[in-house]
Amino acid sequence: MLGKRPASLYKARRLYKNCLPAERSRPYLRGHFLYFRPNTLTEAVRALAASGGQILAGGTDFFPLLVDRPPSECVVDISGLRELKGVIRDPQYIRIGGLTTWSEIIKTPLPRCFDALKLAAREIGGIQIQNRGTVAGNLCNASPAADSVPPLLALDAEVELVSHSGSRRMPLVDFIVGNRKTQRRPGEILSQVLIPRTIENAASTFLKLGARRYLVISIAMVAVVIEIDSARRVRQARVSVGSCSAVARRLVELERDLIGAPITSGLGSLVTAAHLNDLSPISDVRATATYRRDAALNLVGRALDSCGGNA
Ligand SMILES: Cc1cc2nc3c(=O)[nH]c(=O)nc-3n(C[C@H](O)[C@H](O)[C@H](O)COP(=O)(O)OP(=O)(O)OC[C@H]3O[C@@H](n4cnc5c(N)ncnc54)[C@H](O)[C@@H]3O)c2cc1C
For a FRET experiment, which of 23, 248, 262, 288 has its CA 20 to 30 Å from that of 175? Predict the structure, then answer.
């Protein structure tokens, strides 16, 4: 593949405007391409294996991180891989292609338990960002403030990673391991996010607090999924909090304490500060650690009340 210049190879002058003039005019640099836009997943993983290049999807995190520098490695632009776009339902899972954009998530009819993910999608940047930004990009960028992570954790999501040598799957909770750190190996593409179809009728919600109402990085955000039984008591509860630790976290003790609670009593009153002990918020330009912890406690209470009210 690298020997012959593929039809979908672009010189990407804008991307490389800061390269030396000699490099700019030659898409193959020292035997490699600078920018490649494959049409199939097979082509993409082969190009990644051969080049060790960087993946570009919607570019909404990729380009801001470069500031005004050119990319340091070859770029494999996967935005043309139609097979990674859209949502598919099979008997066991709802599968979200890695290249599905936030606008597509908002528009796609999905079961009730996805309401939190749809609410999060509406909060990701503005409409232009939602049209370009992808689900996999948000997860692989692994920002502590990535808005999709709490709702996907609350859905027990798994991710599939595909490389030249095969594919593997893991729970999302294991995939993101730190601030901008994931278990993704070089050459792997996050091809899809899989949601087990176990609690589709559960109520769910997402609340985000920022310094202003729109176009803002989260100070804290919360996703809640509540399933009730025929006696209108909680059968299953999932609560996750983002922006209050390096990686968004499920509040497992609170989830346990909610089981069996009657939804009529107002679930929000059941959360205590101790339920948030596993969070480790930091102080930064957006908020102090104390404010974040307090905000998270309030958001969890409100999200539980709202979810219980709609369950
Ligand atoms: C103005 C602005 C506002 C924003 N607001 C928000 C917000 O409110 N909330 C929020 O959570 N985010 C926000 N973002 C961040 C961004 O839009 C999202 O994280 C988006 O989902 C990233 O997707 P992308 O396709 O653009 O990723 P890209 O920028 O293309 O890629 C991001 C990273 O993921 C890797 N990558 C991408 N796709 C894959 C894949 N399939 N497999 C493996 N690696 C991959 C890339 O190599 C790169 O390291 C904002 C960004 C901007 C510019």
Answer: 288
